[in-house]
Backbone:
């Protein structure tokens, strides 16, 4: 597998509305359509994004995730599973296919494949 870059950073928090307002109003990030009701997405000038979502588990508090860009999500998932890594089933929104991975540090990461336009 080859990691091609960083697609986004994300935060999952019980303070989603306040965090989204901070990103837009204080940091000046441009809000864009996320393609999902579960997150607010913001575009950065370099093409990457910042996502704000509700906490993953009620009472779980704030957590972070980083999205690594891969050319072929299915191949990357097969490779990680062959190495004994637990990888969630892939999901999609309007722009990406992605799969969550819990790395040895216990943190959540995502492998992300860009979808063709349209």
Residues:
């Amino acid at each position: 597998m080859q990691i091609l870059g960083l697609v986004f950073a994300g935060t999952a928090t019980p303070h989603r509305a306040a965090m989204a307002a901070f990103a837009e109003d204080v940091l000046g990030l441009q809000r864009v359509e996320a393609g999902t009701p579960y997150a607010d997405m913001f575009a950065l000038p370099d093409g990457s994004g910042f996502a704000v979502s509700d906490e993953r588990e009620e009472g779980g508090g704030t957590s972070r995730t980083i999205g690594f860009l891969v050319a072929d999500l299915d191949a990357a998932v097969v490779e990680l599973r062959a190495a004994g890594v637990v990888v969630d089933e892939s999901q999609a929104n309007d722009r990406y296919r992605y799969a969550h991975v819990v790395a040895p540090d216990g943190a959540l990461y995502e492998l992300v494949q860009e979808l063709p336009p349209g």
